[in-house]
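It is worth pausing here to work through a concrete case rather than discussing structure prediction in the abstract. The textbook approach is simple: state the sequence, then state the predicted structure, then interpret. We follow exactly that order.
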Amino acid sequence: MNLTTLEMRRERADMLEVYKIMNGMEGLVEKDFFIRDLSGRRGHSFKLYKKRVNLDIAKYSFGNRVCTSWNNLTEDIVTSQSINIFKGRLDEYLGKQGGIEIS
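Step two, the predicted structure:
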């Protein structure tokens, strides 16, 4: 998958926001945006459940839009101990996805 710089910057901003919400750094309630996927399938332990919706307003809302990208991250990225460690690991991951280094 080859992402443009703008797409990668948007993806990075979304993933940072999800990390902050999931770790209580934003003062927002996680349940207002996400439902944790507790099915125990493959991947990391912080998987999000993506709702099936028909309306575009719900389909493209933040909580639903970021689920696939967040679920594709690795365990070591989503379980980072600090925001700076998360940023570094995410930048490395996105750099491999798009072939572009984010600064």
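Step three, interpretation. The chain has one domain: 5-98. DSSP finds six helices and no strands in the chain.
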